[in-house]
């Protein structure tokens, strides 16, 4: 285990021990606020009840996100309502899905779609994941074998995306996406899943697995707060920019008034 120490500590603050964990798919669930605070900064409504599960709703009320750790199997439930151009869709992610991977999908819900056609496999192949196709499914597996992404099509034509990760003890998580889930969201998820960047976990929250690599770091509370605030500030700035651009678009011309010499309604 490596150890790293941050410099320029603030006076009067006590450093806390954290760990950078790789691969991120085996890092455990993490702090749910990584997802919820970003959504709140993007204008999502927090409909959670006191001491109850997390429940967020998009500004247009078309998408709902819930996280419930109090039921079995528990975890994340994301639901999109049907619209003129998109059928109803859903995604379920297990309770131990790292919040950084969940955020890959949920952050994408707050951003405009790319003009390019989505490709779920591209982020995985970019990180040397192995692809194994057969008659009914295609499976991509991480280089260390701990995580996978799978596309399955049954004989009747029904399609489904699956994903997950497990350590040597069988501990881990699973994710499932409806066939109608927008592909750009599934790609955003696969990109976050395949990212080689480590994620941070506090002392006592690192899963006991021989498959993970940890680097010990001493972090000040003010540093953690600053990193979290930077993510929230970026979300607010992007939301403000989109709203400003939307309001600046020319409105539809008003309907012309009746000719000045035309008849007027009597009072």
From TrEMBL:
Region annotation Disordered: where it falls in the sequence: 242-267
InterPro entries for the chain: DUF317_SPDY
DUF317 domain residues: 58-114, 141-199
Biased composition (Basic residues): 248-267
Superkingdom assignment: Bacteria
The name this protein goes by in its record: DUF317 domain-containing protein
């Amino acid at each position: 285990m490596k150890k790293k120490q941050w410099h320029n500590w603030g006076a009067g603050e006590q450093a806390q021990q954290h760990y950078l964990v790789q691969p991120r798919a085996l890092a455990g669930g993490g702090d749910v606020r990584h997802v919820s605070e970003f959504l709140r900064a993007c204008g999502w409504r927090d409909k959670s009840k006191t001491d109850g599960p997390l429940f967020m709703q998009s500004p247009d009320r078309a998408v709902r996100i819930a996280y419930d750790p109090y039921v079995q199997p528990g975890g994340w439930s994301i639901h999109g309502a049907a619209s003129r151009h998109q059928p109803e869709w859903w995604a379920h992610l297990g309770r131990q899905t790292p919040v950084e991977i969940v955020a890959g999908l949920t952050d994408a819900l707050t951003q405009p779609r790319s003009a390019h056609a989505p490709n779920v496999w591209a982020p995985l192949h970019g990180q040397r994941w192995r692809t194994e196709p057969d008659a009914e499914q295609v499976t991509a597996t991480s280089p260390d074998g701990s995580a996978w992404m799978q596309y399955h099509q049954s004989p009747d034509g029904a399609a489904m995306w699956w994903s997950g990760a497990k350590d040597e003890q069988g501990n881990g998580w699973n994710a499932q996406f409806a066939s109608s889930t927008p592909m750009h969201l599934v790609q955003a998820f696969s990109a976050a899943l395949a990212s080689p960047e480590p994620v941070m976990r506090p002392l006592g929250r690192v899963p006991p697995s021989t498959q993970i690599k940890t680097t010990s770091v001493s972090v000040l509370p003010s540093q953690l707060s600053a990193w979290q605030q930077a993510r929230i500030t970026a979300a607010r700035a992007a939301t403000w920019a989109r709203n400003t651009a939307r309001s600046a678009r020319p409105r539809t011309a008003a309907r012309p008034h009746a000719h000045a010499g035309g008849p007027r309604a009597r009072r």
